[in-house]
Write a structure and sequence with these properties.
two-stranded parallel sheet, about 375 residues, 10 helices, single chain, alpha+beta, seven-stranded mixed beta sheet
Length: about 375
Amino acid sequence: MGEDGASIPDEEWERFLRDAEAGAQGAPEEPSARARMVARRLREEPGRPEGWRTHQPARRRRGKGWYAVGLLVAVGLLVVALDPGRAVGWFGGGGGESAPLAAESQRPDQPPATEAAARLPTLEQPFRGSPAARWGDGTAGIGLPAARATGWMSEEQVAQALDRTRDFLAASSLDPGVLRGERPRKAIALINPHQQDVQDYLATAFRAPSRENDPRLLFSRFEKSKVRLVGNVVKTRGRITYREGKRGAVEVTTDVTYVYPVVRAAGKSDEVARTIARREVVMSWDDPAKVVIEPGTFSLVSYKVDTTNGGCDAFTGYFTPEFNAERAATGSGDGPEVDPYDRSKSMDSRMREAGEAGCGTATRS
């Protein structure tokens, strides 16, 4: 744009480009390959923002300065496209954290990056210094696939089964009352009441919890007299998948990591600890014509959990997180080191690695 604010005529622009290509004195250097990629990508993207030539910067006295501003705008647009979290940080948004990740659609091939200098969580930012800061809130962090007709179910029935599956995850691992130690009645109501072995497990787990009958395999619970959650947000990362199972059933697998920030219930403690639970639940939405089942319920196929800072070999029926004082007294576990945020390995692989090694050591919280 010229000094009077008018657009540069096309003839002058073309002459400007020819001079730049010929290396005329005072002409700007050729943009880098990265900058050319920016321009090409911006031209090719449908619905792209305005090109940098149409940007209206503040009036400049020299054309060369105008060109530099335009190039910076183009590069800036590319950075926003490739790393919106960094751009949010530039403009003061996001509460000091990067933008949320997209929902997980498949298993990642590596664990999330570790910060160079871990930042401690606070009451105001209980997920600070953790990959969970970019995870979704509650069920928003659980990827839900598109429904298609499968087994005995139509597309509409599969969609309903997926919604009820997510309802079970919310009722078992996110419900505020259940997290405070209440009985997970809504979640239990979704389990086939005619599946006798599971009903026996449920009856025993809350009455006399043990290694074999541990309610934490399916439900997240804290003893409210000892700890309380910080805020009302639980961060999650995971996905739901499904396939045709036995007898034409729709077999649904849920693989979700939950991050719970807590403080001591007594006093005015501001030390935030995090309990991290990765839980895999496989359920079968059976055909009532082939299996004895109540409408709207599912049969459990398998369920397992891998927990960090939830109480090692403490089978009270509740997660029992440790704080600094307790960790100093108990020391490290004798099992392998584990990154609780690493979702690149299947739960079967994680459980095989743990084996009978005892209590392991988390590489981060």
